Each structure stands twice: as structure tokens, then as C-alpha cells.
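@channel sequence for tomorrow's demo:
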Amino acid sequence: MTDSTAPDSTLGYRAAPGDRPAVFLVVVDNSPEMRVALRWASLRARRTGGRVGLLRVIRPSDFQHWAAVGNLMSVEAREEAEQLLQEHAAEVFQLYGGMPVLYLHEGDVKSAIIDLIDEDDDIRILVLAASTGRRGPGPLITYLTKKAIGLLRIPVTIVPGGLTDEQIDRLV
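C-alpha cells (generated this afternoon):
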């Protein structure tokens, strides 16, 4: 098939000429499996002509007794989040060959994901990696697949968190 809207092997369609590329959204957290989701999304986006989006959600400061201290804590949390996003953006650049879309939100992670997906029509796939621990796939995956799957307008790709780089390279 030579049509640019032809199916691309296992997932979705390539963007037609003039369409905005699909964004593969990865939630940036401190879990070890997040890097698996990042690699998978980066390589998949490169293969399909999509883009990578990185979302970091910071919690609002609960320290309200002294406003100056609360403001300082918020500024520090934002700077740390921006630094973390930049570090992962560099990794995406190496894998994907372009800069990702960066999203920084404040609030609850679960609500922020659903709200961002609702707001940005370019986000077409949410990529998460499952925890390899005994406690299950992780609280975010459990929430999204059991309670919020009906609220999402896009598919969720769950990548096994224990995959090696070589395994991901073969799968994508």
C-alpha cells in the first residue's frame, strides 16, 4: 500500500498529508518502568510519523500556614519538574530524532491526565508501562483500566515494565 493513510502494522494510521501528527503521551514519574514507556513511545512515534508528549504533574503545595514558604515550595517543585522533563526530553530526542511536546500540570495525576487528553486533540495514545512488582501493574494503570477507561477518548497502551531495550526495539 502506498496510501499515506494505510494502516501501520499493529497500531493506528499514519497521519494524512496536512493532518497534525498523533502524540504518544507518556506520564513522567519516578518509577523505573517509566523509561520503558518512554522508549516504546519514542520509537513508535518515529516509526509512525507521530510525536512524543511528556506530562509531569506536580502536587500543589499543602503548606498554607506561611504563604512565603508555600510559594517557595511551589517554585522549587516546578523547577525540579522542568529539569526532569528536560532530562527525559533529551532521551526522547536521541531515540525519536525530535523534541517532544512538554506538558507541566499542577494537581492530581489522574485528573490531570484525563483533562489534558480532553483538551488536546493531538494526543491520540496514552503509553504507560506496568510495574513489575507484586502489588500489580501500578495505581495509575489500575485506576485508568478499572474506573476511568470510559472517560478516555483514546486508547491506552500498556507496555510490560520489565522489557529490555532490545525487546522493545524488536516489538516496535
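heads up for whoever presents: Strands lie at 23-27, 51-58, 101-106, 123-130, 156-160.
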